[in-house]
Amino acid sequence: MFNNYIASEGDLKTIEEALSYASDSKMKFVFSDFSRIAKTLTVSYDSKHIYIWRLNPPKLISKILHNLTISDSWQRGWWATIISEKIEKYLPRNKADRVISGGLLTPFIALQKAKNVPDNPYTTKESYFATIVHEFGHVYWNSYKLWWPSDKKENLNLLRFATNLYTSNNIQNLIKNFSFRLPPPAYLGEVFAFCTEYWASEHFWEKHKKNIDLFTKNRLKTLAILEKKKNLNKEDSVIEPNRFPHDFASILGKIILTKYPQNWPKILTKPYLIF
Questions:
Q1: Do residues 69 and 36 touch, judged by C-beta distance below 8 A?
Q2: Are the C-beta atoms of residues 52 and 39 closer than 8 Å to each other?
């Protein structure tokens, strides 16, 4: 459908505008440590070029010729990574570790409409802005590496302490004042990204927020009907977070945003589950 599409000036300016929202001073509430996203590169593409933007300040910094076939699936969404290794091969070797990538405004909206999803909230320019900010939510949460043991000092401390427990005759005194954390589950990254998008929508794109609310209310009715029919001894729930991360995020995210409106970003980026 968009294999031969060439980006318009409006397409390119829209991404720059989306980046201005991600770096807006209001977003400091969410991205309090802005350095975690500041060097993120934003990548998009048409049938002839790969485009690269910097975030701070928002600016198109590179336009690279390619000979790839750009599929509709690459234009339909956005990701907190490079969607394909084929695209990655064209990027500068010294590119930032943190990258988001996705389709241009015109094909994105047309392809979302073509999905024929009832009340699909992702068919407007506002939703396109929100989608890109959503991906920065992923980048920010991922930068903490909360879901896997990434702190070498802490890991070595755990190894030493466990060794002592296996070899010491005085383990009760050793264990008495020792505390440790388990990594939070990776699916909380989707919850954080949802909260980022929803919070930004409350402050920038009221129409998109209303569209999310309408879509989600109807979606939850459907999920409740399906869940009642489930045998959870044999089947996954309809909100199992690894299989259905977006449904899970829209549920838990709304609860967290409502219960902790003043500090949800800090709550969701804590290295918690402390014992």
A1: no
A2: no
Q: How far, in whole angstroms, is CA 44 from its chain's centroid?
A: 17
Asked if 32 and 263 count as a contact pair (C-beta separation under 8 A), the reply is no
Phi, psi of 181 (to 5 degrees): -120, 150
Domain residue spans of the chain: 9-118
Q: What is the CA radius of gyration of the chain?
A: 21
97 or 31, greater pLDDT:
31
**β-strand pairing of 99-102 with 41-45:** parallel
For residues 124 and 248, what is the distance between their CA atoms, to the nearest angstrom? 23
Other Cβ atoms less than 10 A from the Cβ of 38: the count is 14
Beta-bridge partners for 62: 52
DSSP 157: H
Closest by CA position to 21, among listed 225, 199, 237: 199
Handedness of CA 76, 82, 88, 94 (dihedral sign): positive
**Mean pLDDT (whole number) for 129-143:** 98
**Distance of alpha carbon 272 from alpha carbon 275, whole angstroms:** 9
CB atoms within 10 A of CB 273: 12
Give, for 252, the enclosing helix (H) or strand (E).
helix 245-259
- Evaluate the CA torsion angle 263, 188, 129, 121 in order and state its sign: negative
Give the strand order in the sheet containing 99-102. Answer: 59-65, 49-54, 41-45, 99-102, 78-79
In the block, tokens 């005759």 appear at 169
Tell which residue, 22, 85, 84, 75, has the closest CA to residue 53: 22
pTM tops 0.90, yes or no: yes
pLDDT tens-digit readout, 46-67? 999 999 999 999 999 999 999 9
Strands 59-65 and 49-54: antiparallel
* Strand segments (E) across 94-150: 99-102
